[in-house]
Design goal:
Elements lengths: L4 E6 L3 E2 L3 E8 L6 E7 L14 E7 L11 E12 L3 E8 L14 H4 L5 H9 L30 H12 L6 E5 L6 E5 L12 E2 L12 E12 L5 E6 L4 E5 L9 E5 L6 H14 L3 E11 L9 E5 L6 E13 L4 E8 L5 H12 L1
Parallel strand pairs: 10-16, 12-14
Antiparallel strand pairs: 1-2, 1-5, 3-4, 3-17, 4-7, 5-6, 6-7, 8-9, 11-15, 12-13, 15-18, 16-17, 17-18
């Protein structure tokens, strides 16, 4: 029985037939991957797609959806194909995947010009690409400056941007880089803090009090996962260039679990002591995540989106961020699995960020 509607188009004009299933995997600041499985009896679909073809997936888990009004849930290019006697499989990447194809030969001119806002540099890295990836929707500034000594030569465009994303996400503000679902545009978005904002528009996977209103996702299983950061009771922070070396606590425990951190941003012993103390105090702090399996009513969800829950199972209540997700759909069924939670305050990252601002 058909319960979902799927439309897959190559190069804006050729609709694929014999669709068996589609699976899309999304992780933070990385290309999304789509795996499309088609019927291939007698080689029916074997030569429909080739590497480099543009591909768009429109889909709805609802059998009541109109083909003409389907939302776009993936846009990218064919990266690989594989054929067997019965199946033809297409692997596709979204627009971020193109950025792994080219190497940076010279550093962005913004670095030499001391225009060091991270968003501006990311836009410049993407700008002169050979694949029509569009950075125009990236915000002009994000308020976080990078080091003037930044050297990106020899990296792919993607790895350079991921390095920058790792740097700016050491700040109290978090950002997410992602490809558009219906074009080759790239977006750099400030990740909403589900615990600190009352103005977030979230997907709905549960309400309290309960109502008969339709949900975006209906959870079928929730697993609570708790991770602990490194158990450490003695920390030394140093800047060898300036001869700074501070330990916390001042007296080494009888059975130390010791770590040494080389921090070039530290310029005095007070900063070093604050950072060392923060690392010790943060040790052993639980970081809670939930792995949620659900029946989706929509598939246009992205990493960094927020979802409202009201579930007794696993104690999952309130608004939480999506950290990664995988959805699948076939004409007969659909499902989604995602990791959600709240970005716990990282005092170490905050202190490092503040130290860099004041250096």
């Amino acid at each position: 029985m058909t319960v979902a509607v799927i439309k897959i188009t190559l190069n804006g004009s050729t609709d694929l037939s014999g669709i068996k299933s589609v699976r899309v995997r999304k992780t933070p600041n990385s290309p999304s991957t789509a795996t499309i499985n088609l019927v291939n009896w007698g080689g029916k679909n074997q030569f429909q797609a080739k590497r480099g073809d543009l591909i768009q997936i429109k889909a709805s888990p609802s059998k009541r959806a109109s083909v003409s009004g389907l939302p776009s849930v993936f846009y990218g290019f064919v990266s690989d194909t594989e054929a067997t006697r019965s199946d033809y499989t297409i692997t596709a990447l979204d627009a971020l995947g193109y950025l792994a194809n080219e190497i940076i030969a010279t550093n962005p001119s913004s670095i030499a010009a001391n225009n060091l806002d991270a968003a501006n540099i990311i836009k410049e890295i993407i700008g002169p690409n050979s694949y029509n990836v569009d950075p125009t929707t990236i915000r002009g500034t994000c308020g976080i400056n990078l080091s003037p000594g930044l050297n990106l030569v020899g990296k792919t465009r993607l790895s350079a941007i991921q390095q920058i994303m790792n740097t700016i996400n050491q700040s109290p503000k978090k950002f997410t880089l992602r490809a558009d679902l219906s074009s080759l545009k790239i977006h750099l978005l400030e990740t909403p803090d589900p615990a600190g904002s009352i103005s977030i528009t979230s997907h709905i996977a549960g309400r309290f009090p309960r109502t008969s209103a339709k949900l975006d996702f209906y959870p079928t299983n929730i697993d609570r996962v708790e991770d602990e950061v490194d158990l450490v009771n003695f920390v030394t922070v140093q800047n060898s260039d300036l001869g700074i070396k501070v330990s916390d606590p001042e007296t080494k425990p009888a059975k130390p679990i010791e770590r040494i951190y080389e921090e070039k941003s530290i310029t005095d012993e007070t900063q070093a002591r604050l950072l060392a103390r923060a690392i010790v105090q943060q040790a052993g702090t639980s970081k809670i995540r939930w792995v949620v399996d659900a029946k989706p009513e929509r598939l246009d969800i992205q990493v960094g989106d927020t979802i409202q829950f009201a579930s007794v199972e696993g104690g999952l209540v309130g608004v939480h961020s999506v950290f990664d997700l995988t959805w699948s759909i076939s004409p007969e069924a659909s499902g989604i699995s995602m990791t959600v939670g709240r970005q716990s305050p990282d005092f170490v990252s905050t202190l490092r960020y503040v130290s860099n601002l004041s250096a």
